[in-house]
Amino acid sequence: MIPFIFKRIINLIPILLGTSIITFLLIHLVPGDPAEAYLRLSQIPPTDEAAAHIRKELGLDKPLYVQYFIWLLDAFQLDFGESFITGDPVFEEAIYYLWPTLQLTLAAIVLTLIISVPVGILSAVYKDRLFDQVSRILAYVGASMPSFWLGFLLIYFFSFKLGLFPSGSRGTFVHIVLPAVTMCLVYTFTFTRLLRSGILEFMNQPYVMYARSRGLKERVVIGKHVLKNASQPFITAFSISIGNMLAGTVIAENVFAWPGIGRYFVSAIVNRDFPAIQFCVLLMTIIFVLINLIVDIIYAYLDPRIRLKGDQLK
């Protein structure tokens, strides 16, 4: 298992380097002068002399490849520049805003698992019965409902009408409930149907029928023999959704005034805060590739053939 994990980690290095290069080039190919953007955000008149001084101070007068290598060397020291808006180090600002986003995403993930896994199993066990039919209807409704509209509905009923939860901001535990529910419900019933389909696919496999013939209880057959194999497509879709949830926090954070990395990133784009944009893209890439690494490790644990194949390719 260790050689398999090491090989996956080595494969992540060119992905991160490629992402940093592409992001760096795209930011500098966007029309507009970064020096003028810096002066505007600093409320300094963007004269030619001031712009030339800022270009020299920020190193923007150097060739593009030199700027990239300077940025890369600084990045290895966790120095990603200073924000054009606040003048504070981008790394410290982004990490400060990242924690609320991770809290919100983790809460949405936990809620999704708590709901989708038991509902998916029960829908497969009680196929075509009332429980399965109700979950199917809810799946269609949940998959087609825009998350921002769902967020406003939750605020209207549970905040304004019932007064059970606050309508926004971040504070106590109750502040996270509505934004987490908004994020998770869009995915929950889709995963429910996916897990149901996977379980039904393996329910009539020979090894499952043999397990039943040995007199094992149905919950043991499903939990030990069916669920392990049926969960692989579920894990794949769920791992992809974690990235989507992180990206989707932009909507939830704006609807519920949640101070996370999504709002920080949008603010950086609007204000052309290039150091903040560069680091936010790199940070999201790191999170995505780490999620993929964890999923690969889980796959290798569930299916030893993947691990053996990876070890043979080293």
UniProtKB/TrEMBL annotation:
It comes from the Bacteria. Signal peptide: none annotated. The chain crosses the membrane at residues 12-30, 104-125, 137-160, 172-195, 234-256, 276-302. Keywords: Cell membrane, Ion transport, Membrane, Nickel, Nickel transport, Transmembrane, Transmembrane helix, Transport. Its main location: membrane. One of its GO terms (molecular function) is nickel cation transmembrane transporter activity. One of its GO terms (cellular component) is plasma membrane. The keyword Membrane applies. It is a multi-pass membrane protein. SUPFAM superfamilies: MetI-like. The complex is composed of two ATP-binding proteins (NikD and NikE), two transmembrane proteins (NikB and NikC) and a solute-binding protein (NikA). Belongs to the binding-protein-dependent transport system permease family. OppBC subfamily. This is Nickel import system permease protein NikB.
